[in-house]
Design a protein that fits this description.
Helix content: 40-55%
Largest sheet: 9 strands, mixed
Distance between the termini: 9 Å
Shape: globular
CATH superfamily of the largest domain: Glycogen Phosphorylase B
Number of domains: 2
CATH class of the largest domain: Alpha Beta
Radius of gyration: 23 Å
Structural class: alpha/beta
Number of strands: 17
Number of helices: 19
Strand content: 15-25%
Length: 522
């Protein structure tokens, strides 16, 4: 079976990761390959991935976009991988390139102003999908049994498959759509903008009802279109598949985000299924020894490296470095280490930032209770508003270190060396962070939603909270964090049992891949 895997991220390639979809790509494609599937992974270059060590130029071919032909290049990335059944392709064109405005670094996603959501990225990913469809239609990629699309970035392929005159041959290939995060849908107008359907594909006629957003009928919703047009629709946990069939009631419940009617229809037709992601199958020792001085040295060196990439140091890097130096003085003192590896944004951080029934934010209340009994180290980047909030909290509290960026090395250290992993997401399609921490013997504190509900059992292998309103969720988060901190301090034997159970909780990528083949690809 030959699977064409189209995704915006791939953690097999250095620098091609922002969120969990990158890890799903890496782990699941390897698992599928071990099950004798042939997998071709297709990712944008973003201006730098095609320069990856071991990159080999395969083809230059025409891609029709904005009414003209664009010469486009595809590279194969060897990545030291001798497995011929796992092919990693990167497509390169200047349209796909974007840089952070405050540095020389390339970026995968662009933060457009609120009045023009997805203006830049929708154009980039529309071109990416046209390039993917053209590669199949022009028979550069052959012998496909299934096309697997991931999130809104790849959803344009479903539209092109159904309506574009150049890609009728794709209709004979089974096509599956995976929802990793329903909060981001890529909505753009049909016309009247350089970032619109009419501008991208002037030669394509289509049924507006099949691709329109249900709330704003003059706009294209690529995620809604993929849900309607694909042969199977998939979410990365069973609980999330149930939750998204209900309407959202923000800020305390996040369900279908306007697409619940389409998702209920897909479920009624037998096209919607939830399959839980896997996690690493080899657990690290439950009592992994980590020197706090070495950890803080690692964090300081990473902050210096990030600062060097900016024309002037950011406030987050400056505060983080100062806080790490201050913590170094007290590093040899025993204390609890709370950890987090996340994206800075409403989904992951709302319960930390919001106030409960007692005034201050959830994060402030936990830090005040933690006091000098430990420290909280959080690795995150994303929404500038949330980055500012975390920077201010790090400046105020001596026991909180905010690392504003992403580093695989720092993330691995936090998963391995922490005592309690903090993941109070308002919604969570699956979550890999809690799985990575658990397999290393680190219990997790989570909101009982989506994949977190499917993986963490309160008092058994971790700690879970819930609430019917945002204020109740904040209060429950603080109350459960206090309970966990006290248990670690007052009842170490019970804590060790929870840690061992966390490490023994296995979620097999092999089992996940087997279900993909049987429930999605066939």
């Amino acid at each position: 079976m030959h699977i064409f895997w189209i995704a915006a991220e791939n953690s097999l390639l250095k620098g091609a990761k922002v969120g969990g979809v990158a890890d799903v790509t890496a782990h699941l494609c390897r698992a599928l390959q071990k099950l004798t599937c042939r997998v071709t992974v297709f990712t944008p270059s973003y201006g730098f991935l095609h320069r990856h060590a071991g990159a080999v130029h395969l083809w230059r071919y025409p891609v029709r976009f904005r009414g003209i032909q664009h010469e486009t290049d595809i590279f194969a990335i060897q990545n030291g991988n001798a497995h011929t059944d796992l092919n990693q392709l990167v497509v390169h064109h200047p349209i796909l390139v974007s840089r952070r405005p405050d540095s020389r670094r390339f970026q995968i996603y662009t933060h457009d102003p609120p009045r023009q959501p997805y203006f830049t990225d929708a154009t980039r990913f529309a071109f990416f999908c046209q390039a993917a469809a053209a590669a199949v239609s022009q028979q550069l990629i052959q012998g496909l049994d299934c096309i697997h699309l991931h999130d809104w970035h790849a959803a344009f392929v479903a539209i092109l498959r159904r309506f574009h005159p150049d890609h009728e041959c794709l209709q004979a290939i089974r096509t599956v759509y995976s929802i990793h995060n329903l909060a981001f849908q890529g909505i753009r107008p049909f016309s009247g903008s350089t970032s619109s359907t009419a501008a991208w594909f002037p030669e394509m006629g289509f049924d507006r009802a099949a691709v329109a957003d249900p709330r704003w009928p003059d706009t294209l919703n690529p995620m809604a279109a993929a849900i309607r047009l694909c042969d199977a629709v998939h979410t990365v946990s069973p609980s999330y598949a149930c939750e998204i069939q209900k309407p959202s009631r923000p800020p305390h419940f996040f369900g279908g985000e306007g697409l619940e009617t389409d998702l209920r229809a897909a479920a009624a037709q037998g096209r919607l299924t939830g399959i839980l992601n896997g996690s690493p199958e080899t657990a690290a020792p439950v009592t992994a020894h980590c020197e706090r001085t070495e950890l803080l040295h690692l964090f300081r060196s990473r902050l210096i490296r990030w600062s060097a990439q900016h024309s002037s140091p950011s406030s987050a890097d400056f505060v983080g470095y100062a806080r790490a130096l201050e913590m170094q003085v007290q590093a040899n003192r025993t204390g609890m280490l709370l950890t987090g590896v996340s994206r800075a944004g409403e989904q992951k951080m709302l319960i930390l930032r919001a106030a409960g029934g007692k005034g201050p934010s959830g994060l402030e209340r936990v830090l005040r209770h933690l006091g000098d009994k430990g420290m909280f180290v959080l690795l995150a980047q994303g929404d500038p508003q949330y980055e500012r909030f975390l920077t201010e909290m790090s400046a105020r509290f001596a026991n909180f270190l905010f690392l504003n960026g992403y580093s695989e090395t720092c993330a691995a250290a936090l998963y391995t060396c922490g005592d309690l992993f903090i993941m109070p997401s308002s919604f969570e399609p699956c979550g890999l962070g809690q799985m990575l921490a658990m397999r290393r013997g680190q219990p997790c504190l989570v909101n009982a939603v989506g994949g977190l509900k499917d993986t963490v059992r309160h008092g058994y292998n971790g700690f879970a909270f819930q609430g019917d309103t945002l204020a109740e969720q904040v209060d429950a988060f603080v109350r459960t964090a206090v309970e966990a901190i006290r248990l670690k301090t007052d009842d170490p034997a019970s804590w060790r049992k929870i840690s061992r159970r966390a490490a023994q909780t296995a979620f097999s990528w092999y089992e996940t891949a087997t279900q993909y083949i049987e429930r999605l690809y066939r």
